[in-house]
């Protein structure tokens, strides 16, 4: 890598105490822009999330304690980035027990090691299950009788779902339909569905399936005493498959850092902020709402990449190159958080708002599901067109 010698690389294992570190830095007469640790995590840096986000991180309130304490809580997608953080945060509120439902045994096994050691006083149940398997879900709800459900399981990677539309439909639509119906059947108190800003004016398969998931949840809120609600995420920093881990890997490999388009912007939130929004939604919900976090101004992906290169101790172009690869199938330059027809209502949390949907009675969601089911074996193009027609009929 060019000009590597200009950077001072210190091994933190050789330093004992902040005083010695300060002394070394003053003697060197420069700032070590990269602190290395020996071992497999060599090159890791602690990121300044406030700088990456362009705003201060949002803090939690105390209200969530009231509805989680001594409750049986079920979390789908519990081995994923959001699901696993949800489990850890929920555990801190002394629930009666937590049911971790996940499809991937390895991710559930990994989080089990952490939870059993860190929260020995909490009762955890580890369940390997597919949300598309309705009889199995019914058995799980019958056995554990959850009072609170957080639905984080989803197929979320946009380019992959463009290539696997049937899998996205089965998991994100029919899996969600299974869960909301079973939750209502067993009189769950609160159900929070994790959606995405890609569900707003969706152009890709993932966004279309999540939008229909929103409609399923809102419909069930009208039919059930369970308090069903939706949260819409922006892009979650450092979640699996998001840009930060990809950029970090590219930087560690010497570049280039690949950005799809110089004008692409996204709303970003950290994993703790995402979980905060989910927990606050559960506390605030009266049924049928869509909760959104005020994430400030959207961030240019190219600026995020530049910032990360700088925080990693390198200089753009001199040490790490950047390359533009072009927009991928299903991507938009800009994401928005609300439909124009949705009314925005403040909550008593300063950074959480409610999007009140325009109730459109022209869509029969049950008929829509049957239409989708009938198209599952058709061509991907026909299935995609069916999803678009349903979302358009629901009204945007």
UniProtKB/TrEMBL annotation:
Q: Which residues form a coiled coil?
A: none
InterPro entries per the UniProt record, alphabetical: NAD(P)-bd_dom_sf, Polysac_CapD-like, Polysaccharide_Synthase-Rel
Polysaccharide biosynthesis protein CapD-like domain location is 73-355
The family assignment reads: Belongs to the polysaccharide synthase family.
PANTHER family, alphabetically?
Answer: POLYSACCHARIDE BIOSYNTHESIS PROTEIN EPSC-RELATED, UDP-N-ACETYLGLUCOSAMINE 4,6-DEHYDRATASE
Q: What is this protein called?
A: NAD-dependent epimerase/dehydratase family protein
